[in-house]
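Translate sequence into structure tokens.
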Amino acid sequence: MPTTCVIGAQRGDEGKARIVDLLADEADVIVRFQGGSNAGHTVMFGGQTYRLHLVPSGIFRPEKTCVVAHGVVVDLEVLFHEIEGLRNQGFEIGRNLLVSDRAQVVMPWHRRIDQAREKSAGRQAMGTTGRGIGPAYADKVSYRGIRICDLFEPAWFEERLRLNLEEKNPILERVYGEAPLDFAQIRDAFMGHAEKIRPFVGDAVGFLHDAVAAGKRVLFEGAQAVLLDVDIGVYPYVTASNSSALGVSPGTGLPPRALDRVIGCAKAYATHVGNGPFPTEDHGAEGQRMRDVGKEYGTTTGRPRRCGWFDAVPVRFAARSNGIDALALVKLDVLRGFPSLRICTAYDTPHGRTTNLPASAAAVAAATPVYTEFPGFDEDVSGVRSFGDLPANAQGFVEAIERECGVPIELVSVGPSREQVIRRGGR
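Result follows.
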């Protein structure tokens, strides 16, 4: 297995974690390279369900090294809670977890400003998780950020903390009508956090360079998805980081040539959490059925996901812009019992029909999906482990997605557990 990146090829929530968990068996190092605790990754095996937000999904294999790289913004309280929860469930967390000393820290004002901004926006709210991720990235690029390494330099940390509170408290008070934050309370809390996180912190950039040079098998785990990428997604309905394979290099310090392979994850239908255009959204009974059968509720927020039919337009865009080598198609089993299945192959827009994803969110919102219909299947596929054993109509639907997206489908999941995956032979 070469250096491989797993990303979401749609709008997020495509089951990346279970694919990472599956591929982690063949990897030596698993790396989160962007995002924050707004990402919710769910892994199921042995009849148990595990939910992660910051720790890479390879953590369930203790002989592997999991890295939280500097492209991630780290909420230390969430990370501590996650580590404690994993230990209570019997998993070893120690030298197998490395947190980059260059990673940015999510501070208390980030959450407060995020939540206050969403509240004040009313109907114009972006639908963020309220966990402070956007404001943390904003501080990073406006030179106000605080990194993990700063916590180990008390005088420097206090200087950075004071600088931030002199700017953020007036915003909280005068713009949003919120109470100010206390300098001493935050200082003391984060000095305690520094000692608690110290055993896990190290030079992740150097570690990853050494791992690649030594021929180690490195697996990069993306959060969110291509359509939520801050640069190439459907802006402004995006996350605050490069949530595509394009974020691997800046998020880890490795050169672009270090990445050998990209796997895109896509559901056999489509979902979306939060606001923003969603051309194939189904507001009727079929969309509700997808939500109920697929248990489509956010791992982080619990919000019901918007559901609809598979849209090849954005997946095609994701494949081209990220150089996706193969797709992992998940949740095929959810579509059992639908009399017919749909794939959106193009958009009708005020400017004509297109098979390309428009840059403007307004243009995407105005698009009318052009569907191709396929016969459904009634058979239970949850126990199938060979592609040839799938019902003929299920095989035809998968092959049609493959043709429309122009990328081979190598993995097909037919259930939520680690074992319920079809590996297509010769792919």
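Note: The CA atoms of residues 313 and 356 lie 6 Å apart.
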